[in-house]
Every structure is written in structure tokens, then in C-alpha cells.
Amino acid sequence: MWQNAVQRTQDELGKALPAAADWAISALLLVGAATTALLLHAAGLALVQRMLGERRLFLRTALGATRGPTRLALLLVALAIALPTAPLAADTKEVLARLLGLATICLLGWMAVTALHIAADLYLARFRIDVADNLLARKHVTQVRVLQRVLEVVIVLITIGFALMTFDAVRQFGVTLFASAGVAGIIAGLAARPVLTNFLAGVQLAVAQPIRIDDTVIVENETGNIEEITFSYVVVRLGDWRRMIVPLSYFIEKPFQNLTRIGGELIGSVFLYVDHAAPIEPIRKKLAEIASQSKLWNGKVVSLQVSDCKETTIELRALVSANNAAAAWDLRCEVREKLIEFLQREHPYALPRRRYEAVGKVGLLPEDAKDGRAVGGR
Is 247 left (phi over 0), alpha (psi -120 to 50) or beta? Predict the structure, then answer.
């Protein structure tokens, strides 16, 4: 019995040692191939960068953006060449080959996303939104960025779909799912409705463009600028640096104000409430003087109107124009401040006052009670 146990141990060791040796040789072979590929990629990348030098900024940027995909591609090629020569079992080689196939599918998706980014950046390189007249630039930037994010999602979904379809079990599950897709499809549609709504809203925003990057909008009684448009939501930068996160579908389904829909120029309104004795024409001339001396005024609109008259005050509306929403806000504040200062200094009687009438016990002053007169005062 003891001899049989020893013999079995020797047989198992005789089988295990060659298998371990095969695994060690295969690991060294694959690691060597991967290391060689990485070294070749680093050397080639350094050589190309040296050839480009400091010139051709776009090519250097594109080279940096494609560094990851090219490294992975070279690594997969090296492993695919080394795998058939590795002394592994057929089942093990099949598993590793399937993993390489999955990595290749992911590489293709990565390359598609990278190419999409490069194409978008190349197209938008001709447009600048940091200038005064940036309406055309904001239009193209918004359209390209929204479509870019939509296409990224489509590429990711297609890549995941192809990766899953490489498994027989998943393919069979897909066939079964399609065969019984009635109720399941309705449930999935209801569950994915917000995602699909925002997806379609993103396409509509890219085509119709009710909003663009850096547009000034009023949403939920808050004024801000469109800072970012993602696949599912819009980031609105408010005046106090807060960020309002709004779903994409909001701008399709609900009304909102876009102050820069046609152009950046805006007319700002300033309301003043003054006494009925206020001199309108001097105030109008002072408004024109303030606007002409301001760097914020674009020289197009300046006017003063009596917009309302009440029992205690009259309402003056001053209109001034500026090139953008920020300048219009600052110009309104400047005009309001200087008009109030002008009234305080030159026409203090024009400031709002309350009138009252003093009467006696029976509605008449004592000295006028005999002749039935009442005296009013301020």
C-alpha cells in the first residue's frame, strides 16, 4: 500500500511539473511580448514627438489623444502573435483568445470615441466664444458638443452589445428575450422613459438650438448662463456662482427665457419713482449724458419715458442698450445710481414725498372755522 501511494504521488508530480513549466514558459512569453510592445510604443511615440518638435500643435495634440488606443492596439497585436506559440492547453488558449477578442472590441469603441473627439475639436478650432460677437461660435459649439455626447453614448452601447454577443449564453438570452418581448418591452420602456426623453431632447436641442453654450437664460426665476450641456442635463451658472442642474427635457417641455437667443445685445430697463414736480427734460438729458460717458453703453438705445402716474409718485422708465447681458446689468446699476445722485444733488424736491392735510376736530382749522375754509399742507 505504501508503495502504491508513493507511486501515485510520483505520477501526480510527473504531471504537475510539466504543466507548471508550461504555465511558466507561457507567462514569460506573454509578458515578454507585452513588454516588448510597450517599449516599442514608447520609443515610437518619443521619436514622432521629437520629429514634430514644437511645431504642428494640432498633430502633437492628436498624438497625445491617441496615445492610449495605440498602446493598447500594439499590446493586443503582440499578445495575439505570442499566444499561438505558448505551450498551453487548447481550452486555455480559447479562453485567452476570447479575452483578446473582447479587448479588441473595446479598443475599436475607444478608437471611435477618440476619433469623434478629435473630429469635434478640429471642427471647433475655427470658432471662439471668448469674443464679443460670438453668436455663430456658440451655435456651432453647442450643436457639436451635444451631438458628440449623443454619439458617444451610441458608440458605448454598440460596443457593449458586440462584446456581450461574443458569449453564447448572452446570444441565447437575447433570442429568448426577443421571443417574449411583449410585457418586458413595455416595462423596460417605462423604466427607461426619462433616459429616452433626455436622449431625444438632446437631439432636438442640437438641431433646433433653443439654448446654446453661454446663452443667458431665466429658468425658475433665476438668471444665469448656460455653462455645460451634457447627455442628460444642462448646467446653468447663476450670478452668485451657484450651479442649477436642469434636465434636458425641461428646455423642450417648459417655457423659459433666453435673453441672447438672436444676439448678445440687450436693452436694460431702469425704473425710478419721483415726485410729480420732477423735471422730466433735465432728467432725460442727464440720462443721455450718463450713457454717453459709460463704457458699457453700445451707443444704440437711450431713452426716458413716463411709464406710469400714481397718486403719490410718477414712474420713469429709462432704457439703455449694451452688447451682452452682463454689460446690460452693470449699465443699469450705473444709470440708476447716477440718476439718483443727480436728483439728490440738483433736484431734491423731485424725490418722492408724502402729502398730508392737517384738519381740526370738525374737519376745519380753528382760524378758518368761521368762513368754512380748510388749509392743506405738506
Answer: beta
